[in-house]
Design brief:
2 copies of one chain form a homodimer. In chain A, about 40% of the residues lie in helices and about 25% in strands. Chains A, B: This is Alpha/beta hydrolase.
Chain lengths: ~260, ~260
Amino acid sequence: MRFTSESSADGIVTRDFTLDGIPGVLWSPAAGPSRAPLVLMGHGGGNHKHSPAMSGRAALLVRGGGFHVAVIDAPGHGDRPRTAHDEQEIAALYAARAAGRPEGPIVVRYNAHLAEQAVPEHRAVLDALQRLPEIGADGPVGYFGLNMGTAIGVPLVAADPRFTAAVFGLHWPDALAGHARRITVPVQFAMQWDDEHIPREAALALFDAFASKDKTLHANAGRHKELPRFEANDAVPFFVRHLGSAIPGASPALT
Amino acid sequence: MRFTSESSADGIVTRDFTLDGIPGVLWSPAAGPSRAPLVLMGHGGGNHKHSPAMSGRAALLVRGGGFHVAVIDAPGHGDRPRTAHDEQEIAALYAARAAGRPEGPIVVRYNAHLAEQAVPEHRAVLDALQRLPEIGADGPVGYFGLNMGTAIGVPLVAADPRFTAAVFGLHWPDALAGHARRITVPVQFAMQWDDEHIPREAALALFDAFASKDKTLHANAGRHKELPRFEANDAVPFFVRHLGSAIPGASPALT
């Protein structure tokens, strides 16, 4: 893992890195204990590591929990090249959208394909991040990803015992329910009650599939893209409960 | 409204009051602006105004939002006398429980009966509280009640336009869905995913019935009585979003 840039603002240190050609970002508290928990994030489809959703959630997690927060570009996203297969699937998605046909079957299939490559990539990045002294190999690790970040995150968390807790949401059960049934760590799951792409019963079925004894569903009124911004805030107390706060003197009443 | 006692601890002033024979409690911040929003709470069945759930939630709301928080004993509860009808219904509930018969039909029927009396009582208490200069007649008002507090609160919020936002949960749709369809203010609704008394579909149907454009369901794994304590914390940012925080300099990131 090689750091390629570093900047600091408002108490947060932002470092870009690459690992075997995969570009990522690591946000860290500028001050705090010498070691703190890590939250690995996954971005949504068509998005990338430096999108406002990623830096916004990272800022909430660094400030609210004192965590390190990292994200990498998914295959075919951000600074990574698109394959001919990526172009084909994206064209198929746009064609379905233009024709008013369901997007679900294409998103489910394409995201499952990307997850096959992305899961080992995330595990390798986690290996490298855990070699940093400020993170360490034995600390708690969270995962936070919605949309495509859930399509990658559910098989990732099912496969890797290092994850302590995860926030998922906004995906179909088709390719994920089998993995979800192997997840036993605490899960918070977001769905949209009036999602025009993911049927209500499908979202509830994916939440139901998690084997976790400690799991929470947050369902909000509204369509697929109308997930309220406060759901990003709601991830903070969840991770503080399960990873522990790295902010000295943080109020236990908020956990 | 007559205050009968006053004490102060840890930044919270606690005042007992009575209004036309109905006993209640008002918790207020010991310091803060001269006027702040009010959250009216409703306690659960078999419980009362001074139960740990009520004082615990009040402390979270006073400390987290700077709100005034009030609750009264429901008819037949706490310091209020039980009628012969109360005794009958409670005996019926215990008999059903002992025999392993469903509690739902009795709870739904008895709580609906209590709500008929409790709704005008809560409106009269709200009239009196709004005459206090530190609350005022034109400020935002929240409602927070689970279990029987929802059976009373849903018809109350449906009937009284002074309520700005409400947290409900853990009840059946039978007597409440009709009222819920008239509620348009923001609602947060808690259910237990593995509730042995309230079928999953029944809880989802009650959430679905609210006409509010802004509504959030929090469903947690676990049985009826296993609602996680963090749901009380989760009510704080909800009310801060909708009533406004009365704590100077409170972080907007938490809203």
